[in-house]
Amino acid sequence: MRKEWYVLQVYSGMENKVKETLEERIKNLGYEKYIGKIIIPEVDELNYSNKRVQRIYIEKEAQIFVKKGKDVKKGDILAREPEIFAKTSGKIVDIKNFRKILVETEGKKYSKTFLIPESAGLLAGLKAGKKVRAETPFSKNLEYKSDVDGEIVSVEKIKRVVIENESKEDDTYLLPRETFIHEKFKVGSNVRIGDKLCESKEYKAKFSGRIDIRETPFHKEIKIIKTKKKNLFPGYVFVEMMYTKETEELVSNLPYVSTILNIGGKPVKLNKNEIRAVLRLMGEEAYQKRQVKEVRTDFEVGEHVKIINGPFEYFTGKIKDYDLEKQEVQVVVTMFGRETTVTLSLGEIEKIIE
After folding, report:
1. Nearest Cα to 243, choosing from 25, 27, 30, 35?
2. Hey, which residues does 44 pair with through a beta bridge?
């Protein structure tokens, strides 16, 4: 007897408890050969109620390791700014600590960088997200102020290194303080063209979330928005098992289980398209989206269509609603005996020609 997929109807909110209890009992009874995977279909969705957002602003030439719309985990490398090398030979005549404050103007039309010497005393509370107006002071001595209305998007600690080159002209470098090679370079040190002044700088995700990337004429912004788990089928737990009297009794008698999903008393066994859709939605099974040469828009509400792409490939359903501007359509499909509304792109459906 081979394993098939069945669905347990459980009390909403108790799905994980049922899964944990079932896994424990399988282990205690030695039922591993009778019961396989147990899944609660979940996807990550943007958590707009959580205000925590990580933003990093990097130079245009920085290397980016993430893609827009993809999820990352805490500690993943987001980007790396390159090492910085001396462009000319000369002598270091000045090294000072500064704070680099990047302000993005209202409407995000452009940004402006302000350099504040540490010796001037940075005012407390200047951090990403703070709104500033023209004349907002940045330093305790009030010498350094904003001259634009906008929002602070980053505050960085930097070394300003001034090298007097062989032509007696000053070359100024703004280097990340944590990657500046301070053991090698001091005031008075000689520098040769091509000498490495600082190591590359990596930016890592401070928490898990979804990536957004925006480019401006001057820099790139990488933003991480926190996500939360969404249960695709509340009240359902999917179990891969051999359906015997023993396994039926085991799953039916679990706490918080109402019943095994059935029609007319007969347990519903998921077909290959249904379980494929569930696994694809969860990201457990990879699939290749086909390129559609021409997207039709002459669909009508109530029309039956065939799904030709994505997790629900090979399903048929009825159009519930559509949005031509977004190129999206809502289709009602039948999965394991119940109607489910799914949102698709117009390129994922085609007319059924009778």
Report:
1. 35
2. 229
Q: CB neighbours of 301 closer than 8 A, spacing ≥ 6?
A: 319, 320, 321, 322
110 vs 246, higher pLDDT: 246
The three state secondary structure string of 182-218 is: CCCCCCCCEECCCCEEECCEEEECCCCEEEEEEECCC
Nearest to 212 by CA among 226, 229, 228: 226
Q: In angstroms, rounded to a whole number, what is the distance separating the alpha carbons of residues 163 and 185?
A: 11
Tally helices (H) and strands (E) across the chain.
Answer: 3, 28
How large is the greatest C-alpha to C-alpha distance in the chain, in angstroms?
92
Query: Structural domains in the chain?
Result: 1-41+234-270 (3.30.70.940), 53-225 (no CATH), 287-354 (2.30.30.30)
What whole-number distance in Å separates Cα of residue 181 and Cα of residue 201? Answer: 12
Q: pTM for this one?
A: 0.63
Cα→Cα distances 21→12, 74, 239, 305, Å: 16, 29, 13, 41
Q: Over range 115-119, report the average pLDDT.
A: 95
Gap between the Cα atoms of 308 and 350, Å rounded: 7
Each residue of 265-280: pLDDT tens digit?
A: 899 899 888 888 888 8
Average pLDDT over residues 73-101: 96
pLDDT tens digit sequence for 135-189: 999 999 999 999 999 999 899 999 999 999 999 999 999 999 999 999 999 999 9
User: How many CB atoms are closer than 10 A to CB 209?
Assistant: 24
Say which residue the tokens 């290397």 belong to: 63
Collapsed DSSP state (helix, strand, coil) of residue 263: strand
